[in-house]
Each structure stands twice: as C-alpha cells, then as structure tokens.
Amino acid sequence: MSRIELFDELADEYDQWFDDNPLIVASEIEALRQVTPPFEKALEVGVGTGRFAEALGIKLGVEPSQPMAAYARARGIEVISGVAEALPFEDASFDAVFMITVDCYLPEVAPIFEECRRVLTADGHLIMGHVDIDAPLGEVYLQAQDQDPFYRDACFRGTTEILAELDKAGFEVTVIRQTVYSFENTLQEVREGHGDGAFVALCANVR
To answer: What's the half-sphere exposure (Cβ side, CA atoms, 13 Å) at 105?
Structure first.
C-alpha cells in the first residue's frame, strides 16, 4: 500500500486522533507558533486534514489524498492536489512554507527541501514540525511500527539529520522549539532546542 493509499483508507482515524489528544495537539501548535514569523502568503505541504493549517492561519495547502483533503476543505482550507516532490507552483510564490509531520512519510527529504526552497521568496521561511526519533520517546515510535499502520513504513529521522539536510538545501535554521515528553494527553512545556521532546518545531530562513 502506498502512503497515499494509506491515508485514503485511514483519513477518519487520522483526524480522530486530534480529537482524542487535544492537549498534546495544543502543545505542538504552541511550539509551532513560537517559531512562526509573520507571513503574508503561506503554503502547507502535506496539509492533511487541515488541523494545523486551521490553527496557524494557513489558507492554502497541497495534499495528495482526497479523503484527507476533504476534511481540510471543510475547515476552510483551499487544497490543491499534489505531492511534495513536485509542488504545482511557480518559483518564489510564498514567503512561508509549512511542513508538519510530513518528513517521516518521505523516503528522502533533500529533494523536498529543495522544492520548498524553489517556491519560497528570497526572504522566505520554511517552518517544520517533525517527530524527533533521537528523543527519549523515539524508541516508542520505533516499537509501534509493527502495530501502527501510520508508522509501519515511516522513515523517522532525528533533528540532527534534519538540520544537516536543511543546511545542504540552502537554509539557515534560526529558532528551534521542542515539546511532547510523554504521551499523556496533557499540556506540555515548550522548551528551546531539541533532544528531549518528541515533537520539534523549527524555522529555517532561505540563505
């Protein structure tokens, strides 16, 4: 099953997770807010069901799964069908591109970072949220791969690897925040840096 087919089949279950874990989600959104500069025209790559876009004021997203996109459209997001590897936009179209919990579903991130850079303006920002496999909870994600259909074929990465790939793609990371230190549905502290929290948010400027 391809990653698109997976989300086609499990869109309802994916979206339900946000309702079941509202305080974890709120912690992740707060981390993202702390790294997000003001923007005028933003795109979310892999907008999914639109949960993060709605919370962060992102009006446009790209999503290959039509059942997922239907949820996002119901939340007021304009969704264009497409994939991260070939964004259907001209060069320098956005001053902010968001990519939230997408990298773990991509076998390679280098070409996606290059594509994000292509559609960003010269003073644009890439805002990422990702699962840090090097955090203490990383082992739990790895152990869950056999049971959790969303993670079965995931390509989890550590933040150190993400930072290196961003540097190669011509980005300079300016701010990093982390949160989610347990899977209890509680509001969790947002701290600077990475290494402790399973969810890492960062902002990278075009260099």
So the answer is: 22
